[in-house]
Amino acid sequence: MGMRRSLFQNILWLLPAEAAHNIRMALMGLVGKIPTGKWWLRLCHAPRRENLEREVFGIHFRNPIGVAAGFDPNGDRLNELAATGFGFVEIGSVVPRPQPGTPRPRLHRMRSIDSLIDNSGYPSLGLEYVLNNVRERSSYTSNLVIGCNIGRLTASHAEDTVKEYLRVFRNMYQYVDFFVINAACNTASKRYVPRTREELLALLEPLFEFRRGQLDYRPILLKISPDLTNEEIDTVVDVLIETPLDGIEAVAGSLDMATEHKGALTGAKLTKRAIEVVRYIANKTEHNYPIIGSGGMMEAEDVRRMMEAGASLVALNTGIRENGLRLLKRAAKEIANIKRE
Length: 341
Ligand SMILES: Cc1cc2nc3c(=O)[nH]c(=O)nc-3n(C[C@H](O)[C@H](O)[C@H](O)COP(=O)(O)O)c2cc1C
Fold this sequence. Notes:
Blueprint: H1 7-14, H2 17-33, H3 37-45, E1 54-56, E2 59-61, E3 65-67, H4 78-84, E4 88-94, E5 107-110, E6 115-118, H5 127-135, E7 145-150, H6 158-172, E8 178-182, H7 197-212, E9 220-224, H8 230-242, E10 247-250, E11 264-267, H9 271-284, E12 291-294, H10 300-309, E13 313-316, H11 318-323, H12 326-335
Parallel strand pairs: 3-4, 3-13, 4-7, 7-8, 8-9, 9-10, 10-12, 12-13
Antiparallel strand pairs: 1-2, 5-6, 6-11
Helix pairs in contact: 2-3, 3-4, 6-7, 9-10, 10-12
The chain binds flavin mononucleotide.
């Protein structure tokens, strides 16, 4: 059962996937600039139910549906995405210096399987640029929670990686509400994927250490690849239980499932694995730790299944790109009736 696309979405669907997204984001920017634009965005898209509010890792979310990293990587559309009604925006991956990413075409649409293969390698305008955007978040964004996903520079040397994550973390600390540390691999360079306990701790400990000295507490989550084995997921769960890590985001795109092109597979073909990983972690942790579900939520029903599997929040990307913003309202309606304790 496919979701009916709007006329606008059908037009976007005829264009190359990256261009289609850029057009959507540019139009959102234009709409945001006209006087009644944000009101209009809210009228068209924002969920209107009251029982969607959530309290997760000490933060109040007006609803649990957000956009995942890679959707608004530089935080250019925070006000518009707030008006649209998302519960949170995960900006990033933010990297310390600007990087162009892989040459195009780098985002392949796999029409027959309703999926994308992303080989963009975290194109980013860099920390300074993103900082300016989050510093300027206007009063309108006050009801939008902002997460900052930190990723690895393609050109980074393994020995610098930890320092570079820390640098972004420190600089963004006072401007965002929570952090997601991307431990999945940068599609443009596979040299560094922390998998062992030692590697994970080496990445996370400096962040915990910095946070200990701050007045405000910012939750830190770890985002994992769907390609991890159960033993590797167990290691992540141990780290979650034994350290001040606040939660897990599962999952990023799959390198192993991307057979047609180099890159990370996202979208419908990832749904089953993404939900499976979330369920596995939720069961292992007896539903005691927050999980952000990500991966393959193309329709409202997928969002409900992800939440029923144990996700406290969900982060959308390919579903919005390919099926349009109407997924937000539909998903909100679908989950409004899920029972919560
Ligand atoms: C074009 C594109 C760019 C992405 N960029 C990032 C990124 O910079 N950092 C990150 O952690 N995940 C990134 N992702 C992964 C998404 O955040 C998400 O975890 C993944 O796409 C699975 O969700 P989906 O199937 O709903 O797209 C990107 C995905 C796509 C399609």
